[in-house]
Specification:
The structure holds 2 protein chains of 2 kinds. Among the domains of chain A are: about 80 residues; about 180 residues, Alpha-Beta Horseshoe (pyruvate-formate lyase- activating enzyme). In chain A, about 35% of the residues lie in helices and about 20% in strands. Chain A has a 9-stranded mixed β-sheet. In chain A, strands 5-1-6 form a 3-stranded antiparallel β-sheet. By secondary structure, chain B is of the alpha/beta class. In chain B, strand 13 and strand 14 form a beta hairpin. In chain B, helix 1 crosses helix 2, helix 5 packs parallel to helix 6 and helix 8 packs across helix 9. Chain B is globular and about 90 Å long. The chains are: A alpha/beta, B alpha/beta. Strand 7 of chain A pairs parallel with strand 12 of chain B, so a sheet runs across the interface.
Amino acid sequence: MKKSMWFYIEPYVHVQIQKDNIILYNTLNGAVIENSSHPGILELVKSLLDNRAVIELTSHHLQDPQIKDFVNEVKSKFMGDLLDSQWIKGKPFQVGNELKLFREVRGGRKSGNSLLSSDVMSHLTEISFYLNNYPLRNEAIFQNGCKQFLFSKHDGVGEENLNSELIKNVVLEAEGSSLFRLNILGGNLLYYPELEKLEDFFDSIPLIKSYYLHYIDILEHQKGFEEFRSRWCARRSIDSTYELNLLIHFPFDRFEVFERVKHLVKEGIPVKGIFIVQSSRELSNLEELMNKSGLEEFAVFPYFNGHNLEFFMESVFITKEEILEARPQRQDIFARTVLNQLHFGKINVLSNGDYYAGYIENKLGEVGSDSIYEIVMNEFIQGNCWRKTRENLSPCKDCLYQYLCPSPSLFESALGRNNLCHIQS
Amino acid sequence: MENPVLFRTKSNTTYLHSSKVNQFLMTHPVLQYLLTLYKKGTPLDNLLDNFNNQGHYEIDGYGSFSKEEIEYYYQKILLLAENGYFENLDIEKKICGRLTSFAVKSSLANTLQVTLEVTDSCNLNCEYCGYGKFYSDYDNRENKNLSFQNAVTLFDYLVSLWNSPLNKSHGKEISIGFYGGEPLLNFSLIRELCDYLSALKLLHNRFRFNMTTNGLLLEKYMDFLVDNDFKLLISLDGNEENNAFRVYKNGNSAYNEIYRNIMSLKKKYPDYFEKKVEFNTVLHNKNSVSEIHDFFTREFNKLPSISEISITGIKPELHKEFWNTYRNFNESLNQAEDYSLIEKDLFIKVPGNKSIMETLFKYSGNVYQKYNELISTSSNQPFIPTGTCLPFARKVFLTVNGKILPCERIGQQYRLGQVMGEKVEINFEEVAKKYNNYYDKLSKQCYSCYNTQSCKQCIFYLDINSEKPICKGFMNQKDFSNFLAARFSNLEEKPEIIDKLMNEVTLV
């Protein structure tokens, strides 16, 4: 009688087949098995996926040396195991390795508006308000930077301000959602006439208020910044939900700006330095600048200016090894199959009142005319940004690493290519 | 809460569950053996001490294993440990959510259903009725009718909330349920209210009507019900013999009249009957799941909802008689000759199946309800303890006496508000406080309960007003292990139900 074994893949292993290529990735230790040659192994893995990751193997299967090697490799990398069928009466049960999402809206798999509508607002987590868009600055980064990351937008020819009452209404309408952060940007928001009034309203809501000032904003309107700073220092004792992000791009030599924000840091107000780099040289100078700044928190964003693809290829594009080093967890992989981890839940409101999701490309509506509920519902259902995954993007759609790789970002959009990686050309 | 919990199914497969990682893993006998040593107190570093000088090691019932195999599973244990599988879950942090007055108000503004007790009179005297002889936790039945004024006052109040920014349930139907007693005994109020509600201006929603009826007045009012597109739930326990408890006040069977009325509706409005009529059956000692299934499929080509008789609020002096009348669904199903056919037909109406779904949903880590649960920031948010619905999140129930309750299935002593003439009194702060006090009474039990994250226990089915209420759903580690073993044994026997559950069931 042939001895049989139950062969199973652990639920913490991500398994994917793309065009007859197989990848198994162990989320616990980062181990990987890639296989692209043996049809018997392909059949075996397909069978595992069809049977909730448990199949019966006989000694006949294990006589095939390649299958035997594959099974041994799975076991040695703690991706699965064999159980002697004599120990067990019947087939053991596994939930499987795939995500099951009840309120799925992909590919027409909507579970009905009634189910979605009841809690669609729970998906809203972050709103970015661009209070104004002036003064006009001609440098391209002040027009295009905001299309790649949170950055000031200086494209106004007049003095366009987002009405503070409209902001207030949007925030109040979002009550009961999962909103936890408001990002406040300009133009130079120090010129925004209702800045203090808005802060009075913000004091009453327990959300994180994250302001963005470019260093030029501070130097350009020093009086405005001093007023802003003293208000924040006074407020600190009653409200600790304010934080400031200091935007810096190169060339930069105005170190006195660090002196000006020092008082805020002393008061315990979080101030984060956000450095925008466009070349390897700028990147290499960062450490020195960070030391000089006296700040403790930093973030660095690369900016694609249309001429620095080489810098992106060198410093931003990722390799297989870097993807694996990041050690994506099971929940990350599940999330990346159905939503965009970078943009999901986030809405932008420009100074002219236009609503956008992460991409400032597809207008979703207008403040005052469209409720935040309608905006959230539309973006959720259409999913142009919130649910943009690598499933349908070339060449990612054929890549074994499509869900191990981070969700598509705004950089892909700026560069006009979907794969910021060295895996496939 | 200690991790992991090990459990063995009928097939002799051992699994582990880690509530910290939220995952089930099958365990090889060696892994299981080492884990058992670990759970008994052997530190991880010393797990291999017993094996040092032996080439092979025997595990009872599984045979002999080499030193290399033991070393392999030890490495696997270390990998699991590194990844948090054996870390204890700090359940206190997870279930420290508090109900706020805003949440209560918001629930009311998004309520899915309003149920009106339009009358407490009934033209039947069913022996097991929730307002009958067995129970003590309801207001006296005094043949009272709900007043039009009280109902209108409540609706005017609710409309202002439904039309407010607090309502996030746009596009959703609000179900207005007419309930009794026998609601058709107060038909004039139903008609008036339907007219009134149809004229109300809802900005984001629309109404639909439903009614639970015993069917005795169906013939008389069916045209109205059909015209207003009522969804009907008719209470019927099966054939004439099965209906022995559904009797007139004089004790005579009401079956023939009810059956005649149902057939009349079916004949006159066949499409309506097919689409809008459902049945509700109470299981007891005069019927069985098998008989019920047989009767309804044969007579109406429908599958009824089958409920057990409510076991809460029973008068102590009638316990013996009550339990003689009571029948358990699964026991009755298991006694059926054509068990598997009936189970397949009833599927989600079989209590065990839904419970399996809920277990996998909460404890497998593969099943998510909503997109934002996949974003890590939201999964760490604390939740509110017990399995009790948030007040008004599911429904609002208005009694003939103007009491406002969160559900018609709980004792009327748990009033959360009152309609008085033209005024609705609901103090959201007080409601939140009341619920938080209830949670506090149970918190110690919740903190040490292994099933806290999938709790189904409604606090109103406990003696919650006592100083130290005892939770009937509490599970220690052993109980939880047995609970998981029962569910996985079921899944091993019928793995196909998981696909059906995953594809066809929606959790709301």
